[in-house]
Amino acid sequence: MTTLATKVGLTLAGTLLTTLSATPAFAGITFTLEGAGAQETTLTGNIFTEDFESMSLGTSNNVSFGNGLGTMNVAKIESANKYGGAGGAGNYLRGGSSISFNEAQAYMGFWWSAGDGTNSIELFDEADESLGFYSTSLVSDFIDNLSETEKVAYSGNPNDNFLGQNSHEYYSYLNFFGTEGSKIKRVELNGHNFESDNFSFSTTARSTTGDILSGEATEVPEPGAILGLLATAAFGAASRRRRQASA
Fold first, then answer.
1. In this model, does residue 170 exceed pLDDT 70?
2. Are 124 and 183 in contact (CB under 8 A)?
3. Residue range 5-27: average pLDDT?
4. pLDDT of res. 18
5. CA 92, 97, 103, 107 torsion: positive or negative?
6. How far apart are CA 42 and CA 50, in angstroms?
7. At what angle do helices 223-246 and 4-21 cross, to 10 degrees?
8. What does pTM read for this prediction?
9. What are 9-15's contacts with CB under 8 Å, separation 24+?
10. Residue 68 and residue 56: Cα distance in Å, rounded?
11. How confident is the model at residue 42 (pLDDT cuts 50, 70, 90)?
């Protein structure tokens, strides 16, 4: 016979499982900015990074990422200069492009160097619905309101080979975190002078890092924490059964 205490315990565990697995109605993207000087993701584990080093210089169509993650409809690859090239060396992507992923991504980050006023990014989900439109002004407005010392740290190329050059534009690493189950299937990079490098991706949800520019921060529960919560629910149900039997 199932007692009321058992039902309560099972209901608690079931509710917890439902809460952990359900996708709420409101979903989207948290857009963040890393500290000045950052040129690569701060995340570790289950991350793929495209640094364009293996791609040929010049403009090519239908270019695949190194691990078959997806394709760019056009890729203009240039050697490092004052406008781009993480670390001040190697190659970088210059100009607009449409990026389509074979598998939707829960996280994307990249170094947005020499942020031009005409640059913008739009992200789309698996249903090809827009997850958000982001322009240079979201970044520049945030940096403009920092202290003068912090603002200068974002201004101009931060690498020794081109240090301080192009000082009227900001250089920053940006993150896009899928929230409440949202994933990115397609990315539109808009702008003739869109310089970028070190694109990093993850198919699994990641906890938010950096200063939030748009959206809501998210914390992804650790697997151990989830198991702990389930164990607590189960222990509670068992304790109630023992008390009931004793009574």
1. yes
2. no
3. 38
4. 33
5. positive
6. 15
7. 170
8. 0.79
9. 9/233, 9/234, 9/236, 9/237, 9/238, 9/240, 9/241, 10/237, 12/233, 12/236, 12/237, 13/230, 13/233, 13/234, 13/237
10. 17
11. very high
